[in-house]
Design a protein that fits this description.
Blueprint: H1 2-26, E1 33-38, H2 40-57, E2 62-66, H3 70-79, E3 84-88, E4 98-113, H4 126-129, E5 134-136, H5 142-150, E6 162-163, H6 167-176, E7 180-184, H7 189-194, E8 197-200, E9 208-216, H8 223-242, H9 246-251
Parallel strand pairs: 1-2, 1-3, 5-6, 5-7
Antiparallel strand pairs: 3-9, 4-7, 4-8, 4-9
Helix pairs in contact: 2-8
Amino acid sequence: REAGRLARRARLALAELEQARAEVAAAGAAAGRTVIGAMPLARTALVPEAVLSFLAGEPGHAVSILDGPYESLLAALRGGTAEFLVGALRQPSPGADLLQEHLFDDPLAIVVRSGHPLAGARRLRARDLARYPWIAPRAGSPLRQQFQALFARGEPPAPPPIECNSLVAARGLLLGSDPMMLLSAHQVLHELRAGLLVALPHPHGQVTRPIGLTLRRDWRPTAVQARLLENLRARARTLAGGLPSAGAAAIL
């Protein structure tokens, strides 16, 4: 364990030195490289759109987008192989060495195929939902906590839910039969607008999860990286203004 901790700190030190070398060599030019750890919602639109906007003005700066399970992204952040993460924030914070910055609240909806028996429902109760199969988010994620809260006051769904970490696989499962999934309406906005999927209102009203940045507390971005962060914040403000509520999404 101690050897692993030492190796992680050594990698972080080398990453910081490499970043400093790139900044000195740039001499005002937009050189260097930034690795962004992107969680599922961030990969849909926020990070790609912010990166494209940023690169239009900083074509000499290299940007890499890293995906994977949250634990892997967190290890990359702490080890210096990612500069920051974008996605669902954790409560409590994952550690005193990290800083979480809130960007916006993402509305959640119950998503089903357009021909589902509950597709036209305007009001739902937990016992209505328990009659159908479910796709559950991965254990330990903020979305899994919201899924468990959905049935905390009543019977859990039967049979036990399918656990799925892949949005691509979840889309196939939703479109192919009658399972339900608690999901960000924004992540399936194209399918909602195309009429392939329907977002049902949450029985507990408006339910959201916080989306934001996770950074090393002692990290100091270069001037170019600071501009990339500002592009992400600006895009997040625009995105937050256009996010549908569960009720609005159901009308799309």
